[in-house]
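Page 47, continued from p. 46.
Same chain as before, 203 aa.
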Amino acid sequence: MLENLGFLTGSPWIYAMVALSVLLDVFVPLLPSGVLVITAATAAAAGSAATGRVPDVMALILCATTASVLGDLAAYRLAFRGGERLDRAIARSRRLTTAQERLGDALSAGGGALVVLARFAPAGRSVVSLLAGTAHRRARDFLPWSALAGLSWAAYSVALGYFGAHWLGATWLATGVSVAALFGAGAGAAYVMRRRPETAQAR
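Result:
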């Protein structure tokens, strides 16, 4: 499979697959977009080792980043225009209401690091994009942080696959270790996001 992906990396199709997966996983968080990005980067590293040329990992990062921002924007706009039904659904959940208030405060204060953290946390990207829309936050407050979050996530994912393949070889072991590192970052981001409200209350 890695050999096949290595071949696809040299064609536009791998970028289309990555873009579509990253774009849609804001609506379907179960899509393994991070796994696909890592596997593509691993295959790209395998191609460079075999041919002696540097793979176009920058194009992979740009593709994943752009798709991430476009997906965030689509979810944001959908929630922005969601109307009373979506507002009522959030109002019924104390956790979502609290998260919406925290996100609004963070964006207003320029503390959009929460958006970056959420990009790594499981389903965090979906929650943040939708809540930013339902709270009617300004796009100019949200999108720059969304772009930074998408770039950070894409660069980290590609780096895991690329350097993992160089250090461990273009094998399933390298891919597995890289995916585990991505999930570890997600677990760490989720932990930090949970701890922040407790810290704020303690103060």
